[in-house]
């Protein structure tokens, strides 16, 4: 089994290195300098291997750090319950949700397809060696952070050490259950396509994790230890079943080929089926506009489920949250004062929130898959006049779609500020509202501009632009960094508004000049 794992690791690493080299070659300035023979370069492959190893190490620790820090430790102060009890309570239920969504064994990846069906490696040895490697990464990756954050939450060291084994056991138990389901009923799950039953349990787990502590209902350390011991014992029996299971090849054949046509088409097929199912093809959709304004108006109306209706649903959710916060602030004085302080000092937090709720990237994906994917094959559609005319109409549509939830959030925050004690500077109400609107417009235009300047998709709807990915990653981390910024609302709000206005003007000018050259199908 060790030999199989080493071979599979080399295969996966080779795939990663070639992907890294390909990504480097897609960067505009570099791709003209570097030749195709680059893939044969030993020096660059060494660099690629180093990057690949660093990425592997990061995959072991970074995600676990963010998970423990943001989803558990950061929210402890929101509850009146004992810190250690709340920590253990949240991680108990989040582990259940994680076990169902991240199975590792049932994730249909390319390396599994290449190893089992192209290179004809032993399916059982391959599956088991890589699965136990993934489980080992969970224990190793979680251990330092459960100890660090657990001790900060006043949890006993022995329990801190126990947590990673509980997390790993939960995944093993569910893995064994799925294998048994396949053996008895021939039902195979696909991690990329969770069924409604799975989503239901995940939703319930999240509700129990974050909802019960508000009502002072939490799992005590003793109860957590009992649950963990039971899970570990059940996990040991599950390990025996997983190791004895002999239908890995048949199971993976169904996951990787039969049900998904081709493993390389999984993500694309899922996206297409989802998007196509949301298009309204009724005859009563019409428009009074002309030219490309008419073309764009029909597109927006036919895709209202993806665009405007999803924004409305988000607006209802935000409205519900705002009403909930108002209710809590009027019944809890401590929460009321903290909320007021947050709105007057932590406005930068909402940069990340606006990034998450903005529909700009979803809109551009829909534009490509259901419009530009086909239209860019026609020469008239690639003419500067056509590109710029449609670009102008799309800016209006995207901004308007995102304005609805932004207005609700901006007004809601201003109302909450007033009801929690207000502010000495009355301009803060206007600044909060205006800055939220400015963030919404910024992200709307940002996503559309980089789509036109770096159009990342090929005719198969695959992302082929590493520059586009890099820009999105930089955007994400820049917004995430804002979570660490503390600045008076007046200063940060004004700075945000000025930055958004300047960025939008400059980016639109650049897009108008370059989009006719860059907006085309990738090879």
List keywords for this structure.
523 residues, mainly alpha, 2 domains, 75% helix, 0% strand, globular
Q: How would you describe this protein?
A:
This protein has 523 residues and is mostly helical. It folds into two domains: 63-261, no CATH class; 287-518, no CATH class. It has helices at 2-25, 28-31, 42-71, 83-101, 110-118, 123-152, 157-185, 196-211, 221-244, 248-258, 266-276, 291-302, 308-331, 333-345, 349-357, 360-375, 384-419, 427-454, 466-481, 489-518. Helix 5 crosses helix 10 (248-258) and helix 17 runs antiparallel to helix 20. The two termini are 40 Å apart. The relative contact order is 0.07. Mean pLDDT is 82; it is low at 258-267.
Q: In short, what is this structure?
A:
This protein has 523 residues and is mainly α.
Q: Count the domains.
A: 2
Instruction: Give the amount of beta strand, in percent.
Output: under 5%
Q: In angstroms, what separates the terminal alpha carbons?
A: 40 Å
Structural class: mainly alpha
**Tally of helical runs:** 20
Please state the CA-atom Rg, rounded to the nearest Å: 26 Å
């Amino acid at each position: 089994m060790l030999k199989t794992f080493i071979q599979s690791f080399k295969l996966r690493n080779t795939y990663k290195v070639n992907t890294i080299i390909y990504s480097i070659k897609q960067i505009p300035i570099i791709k003209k300098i570097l030749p195709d023979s680059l893939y044969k370069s030993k020096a660059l492959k060494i660099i690629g291997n180093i990057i690949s190893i660093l990425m592997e190490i990061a995959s072991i620790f970074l995600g676990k750090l963010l998970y423990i820090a943001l989803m558990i430790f950061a929210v402890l102060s929101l509850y009146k319950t004992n810190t250690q009890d709340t920590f253990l309570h949240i991680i108990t239920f989040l582990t259940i949700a994680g076990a169902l969504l991240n199975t590792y064994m049932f994730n249909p990846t390319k390396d599994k397809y290449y190893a089992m069906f192209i290179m004809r490696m032993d399916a059982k040895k391959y599956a088991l060696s890589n699965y136990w490697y993934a489980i080992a990464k969970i224990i190793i990756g979680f251990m330092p952070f459960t100890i660090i954050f657990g001790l900060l939450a006043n949890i006993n060291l022995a329990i801190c050490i126990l947590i990673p084994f509980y997390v790993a056991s939960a995944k093993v138990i569910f893995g064994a259950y799925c294998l048994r389901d396949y053996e008895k009923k021939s039902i195979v799950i696909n991690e990329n396509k969770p069924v409604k039953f799975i989503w239901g349990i995940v939703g319930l787990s999240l509700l129990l994790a974050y909802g019960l502590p508000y009502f002072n209902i939490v799992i005590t350390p003793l109860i957590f230890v009992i649950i963990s011991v039971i899970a570990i014992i059940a996990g040991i029996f599950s390990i025996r079943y997983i190791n004895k299971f002999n239908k890995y090849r048949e199971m993976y054949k169904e996951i990787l080929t039969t049900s998904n046509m081709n493993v390389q088409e999984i993500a694309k097929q899922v996206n297409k089926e989802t998007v196509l199912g949301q298009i309204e093809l009724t005859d009563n959709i019409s428009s009074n506009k002309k030219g490309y304004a008419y073309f764009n108006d029909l597109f927006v109306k036919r895709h209202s489920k993806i665009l405007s209706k999803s924004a409305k649903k988000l607006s209802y959710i935000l409205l519900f949250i705002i009403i909930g916060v108002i209710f809590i602030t009027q019944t809890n004085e401590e929460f009321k004062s903290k909320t007021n302080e947050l709105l007057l000092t932590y406005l930068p937090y909402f940069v990340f929130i606006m990034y998450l709720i903005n529909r700009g990237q979803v809109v551009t994906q829909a534009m490509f898959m259901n419009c530009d994917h086909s239209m860019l094959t026609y020469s008239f559609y690639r003419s500067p006049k056509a590109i710029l005319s449609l670009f102008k109409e799309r800016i209006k549509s995207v901004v308007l779609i995102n304005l609805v939830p932004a207005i609700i959030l901006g007004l809601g925050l201003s109302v909450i500020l007033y009801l929690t004690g207000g502010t000495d500077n009355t301009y803060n109400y206007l600044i909060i509202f205006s800055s939220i609107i400015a963030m919404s417009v910024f992200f709307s235009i940002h996503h559309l501009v980089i789509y036109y300047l770096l159009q990342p998709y090929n005719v198969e709807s695959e992302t082929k632009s590493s520059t586009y990915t890099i820009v999105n990653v930089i955007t994400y981390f820049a917004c995430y960094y804002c979570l660490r910024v503390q600045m008076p609302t007046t200063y940060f709000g004004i700075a945000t508004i000025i930055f958004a206005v300047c960025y939008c003007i400059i980016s639109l000018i650049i897009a108008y000049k370059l989009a006719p050259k860059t907006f085309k199908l990738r090879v």
